[in-house]
Automatic annotation (TrEMBL):
<keyword id="KW-0418">Kinase</keyword>
<dbReference type="InterPro" id="IPR043129">
    <property type="entry name" value="ATPase_NBD"/>
</dbReference>
<keyword id="KW-0808">Transferase</keyword>
<comment type="similarity">
    <text>Belongs to the FGGY kinase family.</text>
</comment>
<dbReference type="GO" id="GO:0016301">
    <property type="term" value="F:kinase activity"/>
</dbReference>
<protein>
    <submittedName>
        <fullName>ATPase</fullName>
    </submittedName>
</protein>
<dbReference type="Pfam" id="PF02782">
    <property type="entry name" value="FGGY_C"/>
</dbReference>
<dbReference type="GO" id="GO:0005975">
    <property type="term" value="P:carbohydrate metabolic process"/>
</dbReference>
<dbReference type="InterPro" id="IPR018485">
    <property type="entry name" value="FGGY_C"/>
</dbReference>
<dbReference type="InterPro" id="IPR050406">
    <property type="entry name" value="FGGY_Carb_Kinase"/>
</dbReference>
<feature type="domain" description="Carbohydrate kinase FGGY C-terminal">
    <location>
        <begin position="276"/>
        <end position="473"/>
    </location>
</feature>
<dbReference type="InterPro" id="IPR018484">
    <property type="entry name" value="FGGY_N"/>
</dbReference>
<dbReference type="Pfam" id="PF00370">
    <property type="entry name" value="FGGY_N"/>
</dbReference>
<feature type="domain" description="Carbohydrate kinase FGGY N-terminal">
    <location>
        <begin position="15"/>
        <end position="238"/>
    </location>
</feature>
């Protein structure tokens, strides 16, 4: 039992971050050295109801309470003290989506999450009007689609916010939002660090004939940047978070953030010319820009860091699923031959074979599309592997091709940033399961992006830890200390990372592969058109 940590907890020398992810709510308590001292979590799943993906309010509150209760219990067990206060608190959640409330604080329609693809008409029209890419996930797209649909609840809207903004409001009474989360609500003006005033005026003019009793700015949460205080925990809020009554009110809260922002913080990727790439079932890269883009690109979402710098975000729907399926096939073969294989060893052996391959993958081609891919315009999933008689078909090239393909769609979006827009990138921090095998995944990403790629020990800490760091920054920053300096000089100063620089032969090989990949999209489209799915087509 660490008595020093116990005393620090009693004195409130801590920061609490709670993040609502799509499958898990996680709470993390950190000390003044930014290390995790306790955590708790709650597993949950979204529901498809009435044609919308949603989570029930009762589950939102239950998950919040359970994650906190588990953390509080761990504090008691590990340090022998009861958690009654913390130095600062921050909430974050999956970005975008739509929560609309009436004047009595009642939810007007069930929470519509980022996953809903129901706002295509609204997103397209707003993109054309603003000349700014409005993705279907964004809150303003949900609001405008509800207007286009003539939904009865719209005139009654008193407050429209995100899930993170809702939790913050529930516990503080403050209708606040962090600028990173706000950038998934409505376009942000970097100069004013607020919603883009000209676009707000355009929107109000667009809907003026509806005669609603509100203007857009009236119903959106107030925008705050990292480091500002955005409210205090109320008595009612303290009882919601800790139903036992042990937690005391009055704790300062930092602005609520989106999961993109907490991911940037957790990977120390908020400084201009830096970025991070997150790899899993899908893959996305976020690059902090020095200047605005010159054109509107449907492949690139414009969001911001928690301290308001513009970020170009490229998101591809497919990444590792097809690789996992092939590794599963190899595991079946291994077991059929009488060899019991450890999954980690199997991935390691197969991934490392890719390092022995021809630079371009030997003329092989694959598309790991388990679902449609927005960047390449493919509407359905058809995983595909194809080769010519002249291709050099061996295990090394096979594995390299699948690893290349995992970043193929992302590469198309990234090339818009680096080649068309001349965006400079000094370094990228990579995180996700694909990087558990040392070196291989990093070398592939370095080849694809043509920039140094790092993997750091903290990359697995996750968004709740990143949110706790933002809460600590608000409480502990020195006067005028910028977020990127706070992260560099305090949070990450002793964190070691392995950096891999792009290899010239790998870069050229990836470019050759991409020529094949882009030319072969028609093959993938043919698979969608002609490969019957479960007898239905």
């Amino acid at each position: 039992m660490d008595q020093n940590i116990g005393q620090a907890i009693l004195k409130g020398e801590t920061a609490l971050g709670i993040e609502f992810g799509s499958t898990r709510i996680k709470a993390v308590l950190i000390d003044q050295r930014f290390g995790t001292i306790a955590s708790g979590s709650f597993e949950w799943e979204n529901l498809l109801e009435g044609g919308y993906w949603t989570y029930h309010l009762t589950d939102i509150i239950k998950g919040l309470q359970e994650a906190y209760r588990e953390l509080k219990q761990e504090v008691q067990q590990k340090y022998g003290v009861t958690l009654t206060t913390v130095g600062s608190i921050g909430f974050s959640a999956m970005m975008h989506g739509y929560m609309a409330f009436d004047s009595a604080g009642g939810l007007l329609v069930p929470f519509r999450t980022w996953r809903n693809a129901t706002t295509g008409a609204a997103a397209k029209e707003l993109t054309d009007i603003f000349q700014f890419n409005i993705p279907e996930r964004w809150s303003i797209a949900h609001l405008y689609q509800a207007i286009l649909n003539g939904e009865e609840h719209v005139p009654q809207a008193e407050f429209v916010t995100t899930l993170g903004g809702y939790i913050h409001w529930l516990l503080t009474g403050s209708k606040a939002i962090g600028i990173g989360d706000a950038s998934g609500v409505f376009p942000i003006d970097e100069a004013t660090q607020d919603y883009n005033a000209a676009m707000v005026a355009q929107f109000d003019e667009l809907i003026a004939d509806k005669g609603y009793p509100w203007k857009l700015k009236d119903i959106l949460p107030k925008v705050y940047t990292a480091g500002e205080q955005a409210g205090l925990l109320t008595e009612a809020g303290a009882l919601i978070l800790d139903a036992s009554g042990d937690l005391q009110p009055g704790i300062p809260l930092c602005p609520p953030e989106g999961d993109a922002g907490t991911g940037m913080v957790a990977t120390n990727s908020v400084r201009k010319r830096t970025g991070n790439i997150s790899v899993g079932t899908s893959v996305f890269a976020m690059i902090v820009l020095e200047k605005d883009l010159t054109a509107v690109y449907p492949e690139i979402d414009m969001v911001t860091t928690p301290d308001g710098s513009p970020v170009g975000m490229v998101h591809a729907n497919n990444c590792s699923s097809d690789i996992n399926a092939w590794v599963g096939l190899f595991r079946e073969f291994s077991e059929a031959m009488g060899f019991k294989s450890d999954p980690g060893q199997l991935f390691s052996v197969l991934f490392n074979k890719a390092l022995e391959a021809d630079a371009d993958g030997g003329g092989l081609l694959s598309y790991g599309y388990f679902s449609g891919e927005n960047i390449t315009g493919i509407e359905k999933g058809r995983p595909l592997f194809v080769r010519s008689p002249e291709s050099r078909f061996n295990l090394a090239n096979f594995m390299r091709t699948h690893l290349f393909s995992a970043f193929g769609a992302l590469k198309i979006g990234m090339d818009i940033l680096t080649k068309q827009e001349q965006v400079s990138i000094d370094s990228i921090l990579a995180h996700g399961g694909l990087f558990k095998t040392p070196v291989v995944g990093q070398k592939i990403v370095a080849a694809a992006m043509n920039v140094p790629v790092s993997v750091m020990a903290t990359a697995g800490e996750g968004g709740a830890w990143g949110m706790a760091i933002l809460a600590a920054y608000m409480q502990n920053k020195e006067q005028q200390e910028r977020l990127d300096d706070f992260l560099d000089h305090k949070v990450f100063k002793d964190v070691e990372g392995q950096v891999i620089h792009p290899d010239e032969a790998d870069v050229k090989g990836f470019e050759l592969f991409m020529e094949r990949y882009t030319a072969g999209i028609a093959i993938e489209q043919a698979a969608v058109d002609h490969l019957v799915e479960n007898g239905r087509g």
